[in-house]
């Protein structure tokens, strides 16, 4: 009837008309992330600003890929004749496998697509690799970096090179257009945290005698 008070809007409509501060902030951060990641994807294609550096970036990409690390660690484990070295290598293998599982689980849950400017020509991919969050290369780089620095005796120049490698691998993911910046940042944090899990669950002849009996 005329002059009657207007019916209140449904709660969900009120939320759309009055978005929360947190929602606005997250939307703004996401927009900045997408914009900056696209601007930094200077090697995303041959015609990009730094397209000539794309082959080098792809070599760096392979250096952080899971398969070379898994195969190299397994080979070293089979060839090692030192019990101390076998213990370290077995735990590195455990760390790499844990990394693969955790990244696959998070990617499968989040299902964030790759950046639109990405060219899908990666070395050996699996089904979850169509998703972007988090960066498995960044996760692996952070995990391996912490592992190597804690369990290998290296001269200072070599320790610096290990850290630089982890940073370059991570940066290359955005430059190649494979990931957005937040994918890489979360990947680094996840890899850093996974190392703590590996240390907590450290495998030794006392805690996992059956595994060491195999070698």
UniProtKB/TrEMBL annotation:
GO terms for biological process: lipid metabolic process. Its main location: endoplasmic reticulum. GO terms for molecular function: sphingosine-1-phosphate phosphatase activity. Its EC number is 3.6.1.68. GO terms for cellular component: endoplasmic reticulum membrane; nuclear inner membrane. The chain crosses the membrane at residues 89-110, 147-172, 192-214. It is found in: Endoplasmic reticulum membrane; Nucleus inner membrane. It is a multi-pass membrane protein. Pfam families: PAP2 (PF01569). Residues 88-199 form the Phosphatidic acid phosphatase type 2/haloperoxidase domain. Keywords: Endoplasmic reticulum, Hydrolase, Lipid metabolism, Membrane, Nucleus, Transmembrane, Transmembrane helix. Signal peptide: none annotated. It catalyses: (2E,6E,10E)-geranylgeranyl diphosphate + H2O = (2E,6E,10E)-geranylgeranyl phosphate + phosphate + H(+); 1,2-dihexadecanoyl-sn-glycero-3-phosphate + H2O = 1,2-dihexadecanoyl-sn-glycerol + phosphate; (2E,6E)-farnesyl phosphate + H2O = (2E,6E)-farnesol + phosphate; (2E,6E,10E)-geranylgeranyl phosphate + H2O = (2E,6E,10E)-geranylgeraniol + phosphate. The keyword DNA-binding does not apply. Belongs to the PA-phosphatase related phosphoesterase family. This is Polyisoprenoid diphosphate/phosphate phosphohydrolase PLPP6.
């Amino acid at each position: 009837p005329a002059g009657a008070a207007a019916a209140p809007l449904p709660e969900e409509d009120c939320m759309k008309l009055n978005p929360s501060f947190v929602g606005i902030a997250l939307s703004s951060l996401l927009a900045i992330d997408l914009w900056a990641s696209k601007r930094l994807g200077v090697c995303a294609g041959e015609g990009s600003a730094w397209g000539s550096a794309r082959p080098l970036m792809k070599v760096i990409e392979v250096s952080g890929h899971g398969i070379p690390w898994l195969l190299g660690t397994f080979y070293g484990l089979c060839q090692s004749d030192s019990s101390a070295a076998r213990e370290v290598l077995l735990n590195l293998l455990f760390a790499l496998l844990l990394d693969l599982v955790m990244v696959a689980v998070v990617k499968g849950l989040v299902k964030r697509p790759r950046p639109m400017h990405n060219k899908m020509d990666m070395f050996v991919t699996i089904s979850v690799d169509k998703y972007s969050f988090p960066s498995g290369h960044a996760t692996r780089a952070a995990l391996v970096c912490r592992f190597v620095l804690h369990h290998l005796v290296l001269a200072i120049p070599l320790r610096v090179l290990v850290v630089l490698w982890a940073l370059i691998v991570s940066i290359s993911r955005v430059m190649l257009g494979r990931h957005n910046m937040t994918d890489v940042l979360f990947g680094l944090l996840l890899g850093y945290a996974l190392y703590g899990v590996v240390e907590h669950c450290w495998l030794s002849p006392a805690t996992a005698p059956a595994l060491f009996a195999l070698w």
